[in-house]
Amino acid sequence: MIDVNWSALIGTAGAICSAMSFLPQLLKVRRQGGRDLSMAMLALLLSGAVLWLVYGLINQATAVMVANIAIIGLVSTTAILKIVHERREAQPRRQRIAIDMDDVMADALAEHLRRYNAAYGTSLTVADLSGRHLQQCIPPAHHAAAEAMLDESFFENLAVLPDCQDVVRELADRYDVFIASAAMDVPCSFDAKYRWLQRHFPFIPPSRIVFCGDKTIVDADYLIDDRPRHFTTFRGQAVLFSAPHNAGETGYTRVASWKDVREHFAAD
Questions:
Q1: Of the candidates 66, 84, 201, 213, which lies 20 to 30 Å from 157 by C-alpha distance?
Q2: Which CATH class is domain 96-267?
């Protein structure tokens, strides 16, 4: 018959439970940080565990020693994680700039005019569109065809606006730069736009490319865009990039080129 030492068994089980009781707290701090966890409480708990360990050593109580060694390890690790998270959060966040693509980085209007003129034998120019979108300058019968020109191939090989690459690279050295394109306006453009960015702006990581419909989801300090509608609920500073259709807009800070963008952010 096996002689069970119930006292040792119960003590060991209690030690395991006591030691493991702090593990969920450690995992929570690792995932979420320990902002709401009191450092004084951790210090007292650690002090108590050390004293209990000394007690176990003096009295040769193995269960007490094992439990409190584990508790010391868990509490110490939790305190270190809490300190690391708090120091990380205390560091100032770099400001963020969100940049639109079409007619801000990529010359979409020139390509649209080229395709339209080629299809209908017309000679529309950028100057003809002052204060208006292309759809407002062409016959209603052409609207559907002009819209259909915005297929995947349209976005694949757009020209980069002058100085854009150099200035965006400079901004990326001082700010967290995000590309924010309302790609839901033309859903077939996702892949082509992504390839275009990878080809011309490889220094922008994919994690900072945002294809969306409503740009209010972008948490940025600045938004450079050619369409004022994206600024109405934007909480940061709006920077309007000049384009024919926004010629009459006077409610926002305006830049006419990427050299202007460089000067604007050099002054900030």
A1: 213
A2: alpha beta
